[in-house]
């Protein structure tokens, strides 16, 4: 962005500055470390100058917000037109309790919903199955049938509020349940907006709630793409997630590289299934973590947008609309400390700032007490207020991509993009993401980074305030949220009532038809919708598919 | 028992998939010279206890972040007793509220390590209790 002559002058002046004032200062006050690095381990120089961005071409590499390659943002006016969606991930206990929490959050000014399901639901088991014992309602809401979903959204206008559901292996079942209750309330599928996570590849790598082997899992995903491209134009069909891999320990560049490699696998699968890329790609969405290295994270978000845009154009000849990366962000849960939990409010604020400076479309801010338990209502309110303060008081939302042109941020954006590209090349060489996951390559990379980080914390090379430095006597009695253990019994009763009052013959036929369709290449959304409408349970519907697809056995990678 | 290296089974009871802590600890224990077996995710109490007995381990490390510890740990401790394997040292880690710990210790869990514990502390504890 500078001419050659000017750059040489700057270079010369920098040399003088380093030999003069810098050398003199270091002679008297040595720098605190020999090498400074980002959280992800990349070297950080003393200062950045125009030389560092000499190879960046404004029009080609940055452009304008809302235009290819979208480095500066997904929309032309960004938060000046509409703020990001404030979307707190929530759910615990029964559908009744979670419904009350959603209404509370909406009253407090939250603008979208995000449903957390309990583990049995995420793995396709009903609350009364032996494997579910002790887990019902613990990390999210327990859902057994469409009746629970009805209760969950009772009194919430589905045509006005968008809903994100963190559901993967049984994504089509929960999507069908959402469609069914929409219909009951007079809203067709085209009136519903929201997101299903539906990203099975990262479940194999990092999150663990898989059910079926990769092949049928990918087929369920492309069935959803096909169904939604026809019936649900406002629904994000997938949220391709780097968040969980980052939480498992990977670096910023690995997060981008691995996530986009998974995204490529989904696009390939859909194209192979006969879908036109521009018919489904505009509804792909992404999900990243906001970690603690503020500027590295801003660069990461910008790099992810640019790299995805280029991949979509280069590999698939996709339209700009398909190439535009939109993403949700969650602040990094793994940075929350159980020690001095109020400090977490500050961590979350900085991470949320990174997400906003990076141009996120929606944001979840963690609560201060989440290293200890699910958050209390008070803690969630502070987390939501943090977003509102950023939105309305800090001024950072008033101009688009305010850090553009920073020598450091532009250099980092380029470096993260290049490093992520390198990981994608490596994964391509291994036959793509599913093959790289099967052989444990991605898992090993993440584990290496996680272990390096742990060693750095234990050697105090990385300071964690309140944990390895600046400790204080802990106040013991935190007022934590406890899930009522009676929930399990109540879900069991609900299931008994359901099974006594539904049309058993219709359920049986629906489940048989689903299993039959699973052995063909028919789109499974339709038989799943019929099974849901017949009030078959989530466990029964998953079971019908398990009987055909079998279950995934994860390789142990250590 | 102190013939040879300390053998540890790192186990993930329950349904949660958070295994960063389990894997980091497993690596640190290997680097400390222990022999470490990792079960993988979603292990039932029966699977954990039979793996521990078959592998003749000195220590079981239970890692759980789902909140189901109060349900699953008593079952594991009971099965260990039934298998005549009470001599195995059981430690635990994860998201376990402070107020749940006394009851778990009463069941025979020797130590519950809460978030932020350095791996060196867990390794030191094992060395002290198992020897070698």
Secondary structure tally: strands of chain A: 12
Domain module count of chain B: 1
Largest sheet of chain B: 5 strands, parallel
How many distinct helices of chain A?
A: 22
C-alpha termini separation of chain B: 8 Å
Strand content of chain A: 5-15%
CATH topology of chain B: Rossmann fold
Record field, number of beta strands of chain B? 5
Query: How do the strands of the widest beta sheet of chain B line up side by side?
Result: 2-1-3-4-5
Secondary structure category of chain B: alpha/beta
User: How much is the average pLDDT of chain A?
Assistant: 96
- Name the biggest interface: A-B, 42 and 34 residues
- For the record, give the distance between the C-alpha atoms at the N and C termini of chain A, rounded to a whole number: 46 Å
The number of helical runs of chain B is: 5
Please write the string of helix (H) and strand (E) elements of chain B.
EHEHEHEHEH
What is the CATH fold-level name of the largest domain in chain A?
TIM Barrel
CATH architecture of chain B: 3-Layer(aba) Sandwich
Task: From the alpha carbons, calculate the radius of gyration of chain B and give it in angstroms.
Answer: 13 Å
């Amino acid at each position: 962005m500078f001419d050659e002559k000017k750059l040489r002058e700057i270079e010369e002046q920098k040399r003088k500055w380093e030999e003069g004032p810098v050398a003199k200062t270091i002679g008297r006050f040595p720098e605190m470390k020999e090498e400074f690095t980002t959280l992800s381990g990349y070297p950080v120089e003393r200062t950045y100058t125009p030389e560092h961005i000499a190879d960046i071409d404004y029009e080609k590499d940055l452009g304008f917000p809302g235009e290819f390659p979208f480095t500066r943002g997904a929309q032309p006016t960004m938060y000046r037109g509409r703020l990001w969606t404030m979307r707190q991930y929530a759910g615990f206990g029964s559908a009744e309790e979670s419904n009350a929490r959603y209404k509370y959050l909406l009253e407090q000014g939250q603008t979208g919903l995000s449903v957390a399901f309990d583990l049995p639901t995420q793995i396709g088991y009903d609350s009364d199955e032996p494997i579910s014992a002790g887990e019902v309602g613990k990390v999210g809401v327990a859902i057994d049938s469409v009746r629970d979903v009805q209760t969950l959204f009772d009194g919430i206008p589905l045509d006005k509020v968008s809903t994100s559901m963190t559901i993967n292996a049984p994504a089509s079942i929960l999507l069908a349940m959402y469609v069914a209750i929409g219909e009951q309330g007079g809203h067709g599928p085209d009136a519903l907006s929201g997101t299903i996570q539906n990203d099975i590849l990262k479940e194999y790598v990092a999150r663990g709630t898989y059910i079926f082997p990769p092949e049928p899992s990918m087929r369920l995903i492309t069935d959803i793409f096909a169904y939604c491209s026809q019936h649900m134009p406002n629904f994000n069909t997938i949220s391709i997630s780097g968040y969980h891999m980052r939480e498992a320990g990977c670096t910023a560049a690995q997060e981008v590289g691995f996530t986009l490699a998974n995204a490529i696998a989904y696009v390939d699968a859909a194209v192979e299934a006969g879908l036109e890329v521009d018919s489904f790609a505009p509804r792909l969405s992404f999900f990243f973590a906001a970690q603690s290295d503020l500027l590295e994270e801003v660069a990461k978000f910008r790099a992810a947008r640019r790299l995805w845009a280029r991949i979509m154009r280069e590999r698939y000849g996709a339209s700009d609309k398909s190439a535009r990366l939109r993403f949700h962000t969650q602040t990094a849960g793994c940075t929350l400390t159980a020690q001095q939990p109020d400090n977490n409010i500050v961590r979350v604020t900085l991470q949320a700032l990174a997400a906003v400076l990076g141009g996120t479309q929606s944001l979840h801010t963690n609560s201060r007490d989440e290293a200890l338990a699910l958050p209390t209502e008070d803690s969630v309110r502070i987390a939501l207020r943090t977003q509102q303060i950023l939105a309305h008081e800090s001024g950072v939302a008033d101009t688009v991509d305010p850090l553009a042109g920073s020598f450091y941020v532009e250099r980092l954006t380029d470096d993260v993009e290049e490093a992520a590209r390198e990981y994608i090349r490596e994964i391509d060489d291994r036959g793509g993401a599913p093959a790289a996951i099967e052989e444990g390559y991605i898992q090993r990379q993440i584990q290496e980074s996680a272990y390096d980080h742990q060693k750095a914390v234990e050697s105090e090379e990385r300071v964690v305030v309140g944990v390895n430095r600046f400790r204080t006597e802990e106040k013991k009695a935190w007022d934590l949220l406890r899930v009522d253990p009676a929930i399990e019994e109540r879900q069991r009763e609900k299931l008994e009532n359901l099974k006594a009052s539904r049309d058993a013959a219709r359920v049986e036929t629906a489940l048989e038809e689903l299993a039959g369709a699973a052995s063909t290449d028919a789109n499974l959304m339709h038989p799943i919708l019929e099974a849901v409408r017949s009030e078959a349970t989530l466990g029964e519907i998953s079971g019908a598919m398990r009987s055909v697809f079998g279950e995934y056995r994860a390789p142990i990678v250590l | 028992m102190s013939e040879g290296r300390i053998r540890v089974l790192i186990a993930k009871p329950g349904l949660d998939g958070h295994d960063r802590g389990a894997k980091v600890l497993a690596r640190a224990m290997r680097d400390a010279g222990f022999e470490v077996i990792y079960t993988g995710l979603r292990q039932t109490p029966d699977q954990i206890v039979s793996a521990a007995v078959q592998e003749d381990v000195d220590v079981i490390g239970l890692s759980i972040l789902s909140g189901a510890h109060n349900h699953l740990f008593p079952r594991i401790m009971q099965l260990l007793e039934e298998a005549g394997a009470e001599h195995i040292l059981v430690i635990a880690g994860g998201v376990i509220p402070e107020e749940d710990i006394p009851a778990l210790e009463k069941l025979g869990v020797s130590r519950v390590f809460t978030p932020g514990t350095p791996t060196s502390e867990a390794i030191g504890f094992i060395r002290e209790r198992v020897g070698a």
